[in-house]
Amino acid sequence: MTVNRASARYEGFGKEGKGSITTKSGVLDAQPYGFGTRFEGKPGTNPEELIAAAHAACFTMALSFGLARAGYADGSLDTSAAVTLEQQDGGFTVTRSALTLTGKVPGIGADEFAQIAEEAEKNCPISKLLNCEITLEHSLEN
Q1: Which GO terms describe its molecular function (predicted)?
Q2: Which residue spans of the chain are classified as CATH 3.30.300.20?
Q3: How confident is the prediction for the chain on average, in pLDDT?
Q4: From CA 64, how far away is CA 79, in angstroms rounded?
Q5: φ, ψ dihedrals at 74, nearest 5°
Q6: What is the pLDDT of residue 22?
């Protein structure tokens, strides 16, 4: 089992608030996010972009391992993910993560590649996470 950590801090509230995201690895170190980065194209990141990156990376790695199990040892995989955030029922909902894959795998047929890719999509941990239990621990500082 592995446990990875990240943290978010938000100062101020609503559109005027400003946040930052930090990951244990340091890949993100107080990376700015907020209303402007999420909805207005301002510099920084947002939760949906991070989900898209995680989904593309996880799926691609799962597919790589599936291809290796099937006996393929060479090639390349390029995946992009487009995560859609829509306003629904007075709030916002992530409604879709659209994966787009381009693969180069010498010797594989289109049907076998599609089958292995579909299995990877169903079984990658981030695909499973997008419909998972969520827990919350909270505290309030004055």
Answers
A1: peroxidase activity
A2: 47-140
A3: 90
A4: 11
A5: -135, 150
A6: 95
